[in-house]
Every structure is written in C-alpha cells, then in structure tokens.
Amino acid sequence: MKDAASAEVVDAKSSAEEEERESLADALDEPGTEERRGRRKRRSRARARTISIRRLSKAELNRGRDLYPEDDYWKPKSRLECKDMERPCPFVSCKYHLYIDVHPVRGSIKLNFPDIEIWEMTETCALDVADRGGITLEEVGEIMNLTRERVRQVETAGLARLQEYRDVERLKDYVT
Asked: Where exactly are the structural domains of the chain?
C-alpha cells in the first residue's frame, strides 16, 4: 500500500514540476524577452574547422595529390583580372577567397564554412567586400563566419600593426 501512495505523491510532484517548466518556457518564448535579458541567440552556422597537415597520414596526403594535382592553369594575378569575373569566385586557392585559409608557415587549412558548399556562399572574395565600403562589425562577422567581438579584436590588432609600421618609418632617418 505504501508504494502505491508514494507513487501517486511522486507523480503529483512531477506533474507540478512539468507545468512550472512549461510556464517558464512559455514566458521565455514571449517576443522581446531576449532584448530584456541581454542574451543573444546562438550561432546558426557551424564553427570553422582547421585541418592540420601534420595530422594527416601519408596515404591521405598522397590521395589529395592524386585527386588535385598541381597543374599550371590560368588564374587571376591581380584585382583588375578578377574584378569582372563570375561570382561566386571559382578560385578557392586565391588568398582573398573567404572559403578557406591556408597558414603560410604551418600549411594548415582552415575551412571557414564547413557546413556549406562554395557555390552556396553569398560573398566569396574579401576584395569584393572591401570595394563595397564601410560595413558594420556584425556584417563582417556574418561574411567571415566570426563573432562580432572577434572581428573587433582583429581590427584592433591590425590598426596596432599599422601604427608600428608608421613608427618604424620615422626611425629609418636615424639608422645608417
């Protein structure tokens, strides 16, 4: 008898907890609650993925060489040659292409958009984005698959480097 009575009490408690959770969920789903709480929605895109060349086996490297041989084919060498070309840009090996980044020293490959294909991208060339003029940090973050804060950090670091170069130019007059 005690087991049946205790089971009814537990069921009553669990149903009360479920109703409380549902009412909280309804309250959180009200429009405008995100602005009040100051929280942002989660990222809708997958994070960038880096492939280290050191971690690939010899078989994988050889398979990559076989699938994508280094043929000498025409590709644009300057902005003038690629400015009026088709978009999305088919030259993923270009250093201004937004789909992948290759580290110049380590050779690691960073897939900026691992969840979409190249032809699904709205912007593929960093130079096209630069030609448009000034845009917000959020727009840059959306184009490059970065957060707004990371874009701000990169901007600050780049401006600091430019300031260092200016200081070096002033010191060249004193170096023999």
From this structure: 1-41, 43-145
